[in-house]
Predict the structure.
Amino acid sequence: MFQHILVAIDGSKISDNALKTAIEEARVWKAQVHAVYVVETGLFSSLPMDSTWEIMYSMLEKEGKSALEAAKEQAAQQGVKMETYMKQGHAGNEILKAIMELPVDLVVMGSHGKSEVDRILLGSVSSFVVSNSPKTVMVVRPSK
């Protein structure tokens, strides 16, 4: 039923749960996983374009590369093929673009990002994707 699964990761614990779920689904369906990490540039777009912006972006990009490498390693350990993608911009918009550009059958993502503050400041990325995705979206809740 599912051949290509997109998982959105951000390095948070809930994102790790989404990744595990995506890998489990891929094993069941013998599917390929596409992991996307979005450097959320909207968080600091109001700052002046100086070295502070560059440092923050560099830190977020480094965190993203690390998260994607760890995800690929985790998938390989489970015998699942994974492609990784680093995007920048508004997380919800970039995830939707990836859904449209890739042969995605299922999207897996966490119910919220790194902190509840993100939800207050940015709105819920998962709600945005669920509302706008033409594909099935599985929202993973925190494990208790």
Observations:
- Residues 51-77 form the longest helix (27 residues).
